[in-house]
Structure formats: C-alpha cells, structure tokens
Hints:
Layout: E1 4-9, H1 26-31, H2 41-56, H3 59-62, E2 64-70, E3 79-84, E4 89-94, E5 100-108, E6 149-153, H4 155-165, H5 182-194, E7 203-211, E8 219-233, E9 236-246, E10 252-263
Antiparallel strand pairs: 1-3, 2-5, 2-7, 3-4, 4-5, 6-8, 7-10, 8-9, 9-10
Helix pairs in contact: 2-5
Amino acid sequence: MPSHRHHLQAFMKNPDAEKSNAIHSTSGAKDYGFQGALVGGATAYGWAASLFVETLGNQWLDFGWAHVRFRQPVYPGDDLVVVLDDDGSFEVRRDIDEVCCFSGEIGRGEAPWLGDIGVPSRRPPESIADPLPDLVLEDVPVGEELRTREVHLSVADAGAYARDKQVETLDCFYGSDASIHPAWIAEQPIHWLHHSYNYGPSIHTESRIQHLREGRVGQTYRVAGICRDAYERKGHHYIVNDTEIRDAADRAVARVQHTAIFRVRKLEAKRSDQPN
C-alpha cells in the first residue's frame, strides 16, 4: 500500500496570456490539439518534490536523485494526488479519473544511472547567441557542448519563485540561506538550450536529476551541457541533453539529463494523450 499521499490543485497564472512557449497558453496549446494550456513539467515536478523533501528530508537535496517521466498533460485546475511508495516509486494522478500524469522513482545517494550522464568541460560563460539560430533536427550538434549560461539566483527571486510559481509551503525554500528549489534545478536545461537556439513550442517529457550538493540562494551559477541525442518519433522531434550546474565555488550542485519535444507535431483534433 502507498505510504505517503499529498493532494494539490494544479495552477497557472494567466493561462490565456501569450507565452514564450505557446504550449503553456490556452490558444497555443489548442493549436496543437490539447484542451487547454499545459502546465510546465518542471513546475508540476516541483509540486511533487515538496513531498519528497518532507519524506526524505533535506538530505535528499544534498545528495539524492529523481527520475521522472511525463505521460499525460497537467492542466490548470486539475486536482492531483501524489502517491509515494516506500520503495521510492511515485505517481502523480488526476484525482477525478486516476489517470497518471507523471511518474518515476526517487532515492537518496547516487542514482544507478548517474554514470550515464555526460559531464561537460568547465567552459567560461558566454552571452546568448545573437542571432539565435533555429533548432533543426538535421543540424542538432549531437556530442557537442553548447554555450555555458551564467545565472544569478537572488534571495528575492528565489523567494518569488517558490511563492508565486510553486506556492511552496516548506520553510527551507525561503530566506537568506534558503535551499534552491528542485523545480528551479529541473528547468535549467530548458534555459540553457534557449541560450544557444530558438525553438518551440516544446514539451518536457523526461528528466533524470542528481543532486550533488545542496545549492543555496544568493549565488551565481553556471549551467553547461552536451547535446546527447536527437530523433523523431510519431512526428515529434526530440532532443536529449546532459547538463551540469556548478556554484560560485565551481562545485557541482546537480547533473540533469533532460528530454524534450522541441518541435511538436500539430494535430487536427483534440487529444489528451500527449506527454507534458
């Protein structure tokens, strides 16, 4: 029987507004056959991650891992239940129909797949590509490193992220010595890829996340990475990237293998069976 459950309601500010990723807006998502705006995968993962921290403690943020696979869309207003079993497996289901929106496994220590994530070199940060080239399946630089991105996470920005985007209730994500939110870690590969390429609409489909050190707010971080793979499946164009986040002292905070659809196949009719 499941050992831990957490109920929550999915939300999004202004789903009808235009977004940089059109899949997160009502009209943009409907253009691709969805019934409404899709909640971002990293955001939804962050809601579940709060239960992981409550269950495994802050040690999980210091040296723990998660493997998450997105299966069905999460829409604003969905009532969700997070089910975490004693063996570390979890599911996030819509309460009304028990459909699994995303699932995976978590654990303390080193993930069994950590060695499969490529480690980029410690390149200095570069400015965003200007102009940004379009990401095209035939030209994806598989095996190559892209531009290193530098990002400062201020105390104020981290607090606003936890409060406004995650509606976080855990105290460890607020204040001058707060921990970095797991959702912030999970979404960095998205911003890193946008640092080198223009693409979208896009859909987050899978992440492998290894926390190597508990990151703290008020620091500047570098995100570097390697294009691992690119392929087509059922008309969607996918990309897989291996990234590493390092702190101001050049210590690895996390490694993330991120898989996303960077070119979504346009559908002629509504469907609800696309990954988020």
